[in-house]
Specification:
Rossmann fold, 2 domains, 359 residues, 13% strand, 15 helices, 4-stranded parallel beta sheet, 43% helix, 13 strands, alpha/beta, 5-stranded parallel beta sheet
Length: 359
């Protein structure tokens, strides 16, 4: 009897597992094929209506593509990252926030009835999500190496979201290329002795991004020389005080600050700490008061679609006489109107550029 009971239990468990896979892991929705940034094909529903924005820059991308109404859930930090998000994005206050966006509960994802998940480049977790039948769009290990990856990844998102998004992504790409070429036409002809040395801090004074990120390229495009261009590693690379003193940069830029879940204090606190740190007082940038806070607005400029604004902002900072024609207040207002469908006032643009919250 015990053997028969054991066999029956195994049999029923197999039936339950089969029904689970049939109900949840197979989709009867018509599908289409798109290619991720690494060239791999992904099957997604023809009509994508419900997406999860777990990847850090994903909410900004989907909102820029005028598909915020398709976001069913987002990472909790999207809702707390910047007060400008709550002011400018239409639905973020009403979308559920998900705390465990790096390790989501698979049963919860099934219950959300998602068509696509925009996720991090975490192969193990990606495979698990795909295993329950939900397509996953992720950076595929490519973005972060080149500034243009921001443009190309947006195009992948647009392919997922459909016709209207594709048209917006095309407009963004044209704007991106136009502004990049405008800056490069000046900076590419400059000799190195006319370029300032620049240290780009990420989240903390002694945390940066090395040659495995696009930060050295970003600084170079704007007409600077990145002191960390030969440093191994990508975003989040810790350095020692001695190395920063050795580099002795002429300009310091602080970005990605205020990310408390990553151990970062607000940017104004970090600037104050650096200025008051006696160990750093010999650094040229601090002696000459050349420490700048990169604006954020709805998302970090060094990690999302506003990166093109950052290139212009840095170019004007590094070479004010060569880029006197750039009006960052005007550029910012145009960008938000064109791509976020929000008309910034002059004061709102000024506050974003000064890394201040909405009034």
């Amino acid at each position: 009897m015990k053997i028969i009971r054991f066999i029956l239990i195994i049999f029923f468990n197999i039936i339950l597992l089969f029904n689970f896979e049939k109900a949840y892991c197979k989709t009867e929705k018509p599908t289409r094929t798109i290619k991720n940034l690494n060239g791999k094909s992904i099957q997604i529903p023809v009509d994508v209506r419900r997406v999860a924005c777990f990847y850090g820059p994903s909410y900004e991308k989907v909102a820029l593509l005028d598909a915020e109404d398709k976001i069913a859930v987002c990472s909790e930090f999207h809702k707390t990252l910047s007060p400008w998000k709550k002011k400018i994005f239409k639905r973020i206050n009403n979308i559920p926030g998900y705390a465990s966006s790096h390790s989501p509960n698979l049963e919860e994802l099934i219950n959300m009835k998602l068509d696509v998940v925009f996720f991090w480049d975490m192969p193990g977790v990606v495979e698990k999500i795909q295993g329950i039948g939900i397509p996953v769009i992720h950076p595929a290990g490519v973005p972060g190496r080149k500034v243009e990856d921001m443009k190309y990844l947006l195009n992948v998102y647009a392919e997922v979201l459909g016709d209207k998004a594709i048209k917006i992504a095309k407009r963004y790409s044209e704007y991106f290329d136009q502004k990049i070429n405008m800056v490069k036409s000046v900076t590419s002809a400059m000799p190195d002795n006319e370029k300032p040395t620049v240290y780009f801090a990420v989240r903390k004074p002694l945390q940066t991004a090395g040659r495995d990120s696009f930060i050295p390229e970003l600084v170079g495009l704007a007409g600077g020389i990145s002191v960390q261009r030969d440093l191994s590693g990508g975003f989040g690379r810790e350095i020692g005080l001695e190395l920063l003193l050795k580099w002795n940069p002429e300009i310091i830029i602080l970005d990605h600050c205020g990310a408390r879940w990553m151990g970062s204090a607000p940017v104004h606190e970090i600037v104050s700490q650096m200025i008051n740190d006696k160990r750093l007082e010999s650094i040229t940038a601090l002696k000459n008061k050349q420490v700048y806070m990169s604006p954020t607005g709805v998302f970090f400029w060094d990690s999302g679609q506003q990166v093109i604004l950052q290139i212009m902002w840095m170019a004007k900072m590094f070479h004010p006489e060569k880029f006197s024609h750039i009006d960052m207040n005007k550029e910012l207002k145009y960008f938000y109107s064109e791509f976020f469908r929000y008309k910034l006032s002059d004061d709102e643009a000024r506050r974003i550029l000064l890394n201040l919250p909405p009034d």
